[in-house]
Each structure stands twice: as structure tokens, then as C-alpha cells.
Amino acid sequence: MTDITGFNATLQFPIKDAKLLERVFTHRSILNEPSPHSSVKAESNERLEFLGDSVLSTVISTLLYDRFPESDEGELTRLRARLVNGISLARIATRIKMDLYLLLGKGEATSGGSSNSTILSGALEALIGAVYIDSGFASAFTFTESLFNGLIDETLSEPVHFDYKPRLQELAQTLYKEPPTYRLLNESGPAHDRLFEVEVIVGVTVRGTGTAKKKKEAEQIAAREALVILGGLRPKAQKTDKEEE
């Protein structure tokens, strides 16, 4: 294992408690093995993981609530699930090189534990929990936001990432007893940069249109417009004159 003090120095909020820092990387598989690390036998990172999970959920929920004022509870829950899952957490943990510092039992280490998404995601949550304990909630919030900001911006900024189509289908079935119909109105542009215009018909009326570089994304935009018209989704909040200045 690489010296974790080097990792700690890279953190926005370095953890001052050395034992707490070591616990972040201590997987339960090493607890029953002889180790030169004094705190290994005392406690794994599972309790920190539990705490960090709660902090993470609060931070991401707050960020989504602020960034997507037009989304209802169900949509916000789905968005949070896209961000807070084992795969995304493991990728972030690997990006900040937590895999190099894990304290694993021999069996876990030889079976590829340092690349195990469950172990990595748990370690990241433990790290968030440790920052919370060591520096307080405000620091933990800022630290967590810095980890996820890019992921929120890149992954959730496009309409294709919102599940508007199944929501519209459910609403259409309820109101009209039949699914919505999507129709391609126009396809333009060169082969490498196509633009698709789509409309969606609910009942017998065109309820929404969408234009995008991917047909499926255009359908999502049209579905969202239809949901707003049919009352299944709140319209985007309008900016005040002061906000537009």
C-alpha cells in the first residue's frame, strides 16, 4: 500500500486525524489478518461508509433540488439514482486514486479487490464521512460537490438523461387509454451532423415537438413538452427581470 499521507495532501480538506484517515481505507477483509497498521484491527471503514452515505445523499439531493427547480420528487429521485450508485462512486474513487491506498486482506487483494466497485464506492463514502467528522458539514458539502460537479453537468445536462418518455406513456394510458405516438417530421444536415425534428401525438392531438442531433433525444424533448401541456410536469421556472439582467 502506498503511503496515505501523500493522498491526504491532495485533498481539498486534508484529514487531520491520522487514525481516521487510515480507517477510510480499511476494508473488513483485513481485520483478522496480522498487520503493521495499528488501527486495522480496531475498526473497518463500514461505520464511516454508513455516515458518508447519509452526507452524500443530503448533498446530492440539495444540489439537484437547486439545479432542477422544474423537476418533481419522482424525477429528482431518479436523477439522484443516476449519480449515487456503485459504478459512479467507484469511478470517482478511482479518479482520485483511492484504489492505490486500500487496506485489503490477502484474499481480497489477490482477487482484484482494489478494482471492486463495491469496495471502492464504500471507501469513497467513508472518505466523505471522515471529512464530515474531521472538518464539519460545510466542508463535507463543498468537498462532495467538487467530486460530483462535473458528473452532474456532463451527465444530466442533456434531455436524453431525463426519463420523460415512460412518464408520458403512463400519463397517456391514464388519460386516453392508449400510448403516445412519435413521428419524425424532418431530418436535415450532413451525415456527420444530422438534426432530427420529432412530434408526439397523445390522443389525436400533437402535444409536443423536439429537435436534437439524436432522434431519441428529440423524442425526449417532445415528451417533456407534452408532459407540461398535459399537466404531468411543472414548466421550467421563469426568470425574473432582475435575474435576466
Estimate the strand proportion: 5-15%
Mean pLDDT: 86
- How are strands sequenced across the largest beta sheet? 1-2-3
N-to-C terminal Cα separation, in Å?
Answer: 54 Å
Overall radius of gyration: 23 Å
Biggest beta sheet summary: 3 strands, antiparallel
Helical fraction equals 40-55%
The secondary-structure element order is HHHHHHHHHEEEHH
Instruction: Sum up the overall morphology in one term.
Output: elongated
Structural class: mainly alpha
The helix tally amounts to 11
Q: List how many beta strands DSSP finds.
A: 3
**Poorly predicted ranges (pLDDT <50, ≥5 residues)?**
237-245
Can you offer a commentary on this structure?
With 245 residues, the protein is mainly alpha-helical. It is 55% helix and 10% strand. The protein contains eleven helices and three strands. It has a three-stranded antiparallel beta sheet. Helix 2 (18-24) runs antiparallel to helix 7, helix 3 (46-67) crosses helix 7 (117-135) and helix 5 crosses helix 7. The chain is elongated, with a radius of gyration of 23 Å. The relative contact order is 0.12. The model is unreliable at 237-245 (pLDDT under 50).
Topology:
Elements: H1 4-10, H2 18-24, H3 46-67, H4 73-83, H5 86-95, H6 106-110, H7 117-135, H8 137-156, H9 164-176, E1 181-188, E2 195-202, E3 205-212, H10 215-230, H11 241-244
Antiparallel strand pairs: 1-2, 2-3
Helix pairs in contact: 2-7, 3-4, 3-7, 3-8, 5-7, 7-8, 9-10
Features:
mainly alpha, 245 residues, elongated, three-stranded antiparallel sheet
